[in-house]
Amino acid sequence: MANDASTVFDLVILGGGSGGYAAALRGAQLGLDVALIEKDKLGGTCLHRGCIPTKALLHAGELADQAREGAEFGVKTTLEGIDMAGVHKYKDGVVSGLYKGLQGLVASRKITYVTGEGRLSSATSVDVDGQRYEGRHILLATGSVPKSLPGLEIDGDRVISSDHALVLDRVPKSAVVLGGGVIGVEFASAWKSFGTDVTIVEALPHLVPAEDEGSSKLLERAFRKRGINFSLGSRFSGVEYTDNGVKVSLENGKTFEAELLLVAVGRGPVSQGLGYEEAGVAMDRGFVLVDEYMQTNVPTISAVGDLVPTLQLAHVGFAEGMLVAERLAGQKTVPIDYDGVPRVTYCHPEVASVGITEAKAKELYGSDKVVTLKYNLAGNGRSKILKTAGEIKLVQVRDGAVVGVHMVGDRMGEQVGEAQLIYNWEALPAEVAQLVHAHPTQNEALGEAHLALAGKPLHSHD
Ligand SMILES: Cc1cc2nc3c(=O)[nH]c(=O)nc-3n(C[C@H](O)[C@H](O)[C@H](O)COP(=O)(O)OP(=O)(O)OC[C@H]3O[C@@H](n4cnc5c(N)ncnc54)[C@H](O)[C@@H]3O)c2cc1C
What we know:
Number of strands: 24
Shape: globular
CATH superfamily of the largest domain: FAD/NAD(P)-binding domain
CATH class of the largest domain: Alpha Beta
Bound molecules: flavin-adenine dinucleotide
CATH architecture of the largest domain: 3-Layer(bba) Sandwich
Cofactor: FAD
Mean pLDDT: 97
Main location: cytoplasm
Strand content: 15-25%
Keywords: Cytoplasm, Disulfide bond, FAD, Flavoprotein, NAD, Oxidoreductase, Redox-active center
Number of domains: 3
Pfam families: Pyr_redox_2, Pyr_redox_dim
InterPro entries: Class-I_Pyr_Nuc-Dis_Oxidored, FAD/NAD-bd_sf, FAD/NAD-binding_dom, FAD/NAD-linked_Rdtase_dimer_sf, Lipoamide_DH, Pyr_nuc-diS_OxRdtase, Pyr_nucl-diS_OxRdtase_dimer, Pyr_OxRdtase_I_AS
Number of helices: 13
């Protein structure tokens, strides 16, 4: 469709990241006339600066670890070194292949794709470079960018964000990672695999603090074993430049010197100066507020993805974007159960979960109504073959459904698919126990955990 002044689109989308492009693809599929406005690259953070490139780095790191550890499997390997240019070539190849595919997909759905910086000019229009795009509905999907702390300047050289870390041309000799959340531990893990001496600084008492405490403790144990250092429970107080890098100080008086500091303290919404306030959109600390159908207080405006205060995950953006498109196309939609969204941290070992933590379950149902079961991966043949340690923890409401699945171990992210069916279909342990799981797989560990919870443990003790 041409962007002449008389065109009124069904949906004008500002931002072509996971949330925005998912809404565009689904909307077009349902027959809506869609305009998608993106100032940088289609695919946004996830494809270019997030999920995909980090997982490529982590995979290269896994290969480095395997090369070092070949002798443990009777295979004669040594790690000669990391060729960072080669790692980037591999990573960029993955990204560019997916980018091309996505561009083709958007073109094939007859979406009007607009390159340029957009600004909301009214409740039903977005301006880009002097051109107005009118829509019966507007979707705000401008995403997020790395945050810092007050007084901590990210200079892109010695004090860097994840954006810089992804294009670093060398393996740093040493690094302090500020923030022990998902992004921080993933970089710490990849760098350690490449040979960096890493220290993570986390103000809260545990790494990956949003996870079940049991998972955090298992990850901490595994990181300790890998020689990844971390300091928990004390806040950052300052950083100064040294001759060779940085010196990071904490409120408890500890200091750490390293070649660089990666700031991974979270991501803030991109909403300043984009006309949102002027259009009357309700916001809180930069996040756009929405109801459970992703609608803002302005009836013609919706918002999705990292811009709204829900889980900052690409698949959450996809789901929210699709929900908006379906609602606008007149389909029946149901709100997203955010507890039912799978979460994976792709460090070595991986942390994967769905549902609620043991602590949250106790808060909701009362301590006496919550049952937990831990299945140690030491009893799982496939995990033993891979030489990975870890655990699956189930949280059940007594005599009821499984409300939380928490897993730690290499490749356990691949098991979260079944775990999410168990949670979202409110499965009883006995129902899962009835399903036959393939042997020897890591997936079998989920089956075994449910056998045990149903009172008939096979490869675990009563
Ligand atoms: C290092 C890292 C690793 C991650 N790993 C994972 C992972 O493994 N799994 C996972 O699920 N999630 C992961 N995430 C999170 C995931 O990337 C985000 O949740 C997701 O990208 C959010 O999508 P979005 O569409 O809301 O925003 P974004 O992807 O940020 O897209 C917003 C888009 O809007 C554009 N834009 C902004 N302002 C304007 C404007 N004025 N005009 C035009 N365009 C504009 C931007 O250029 C951008 O392309 C990771 C994030 C990071 C940083």
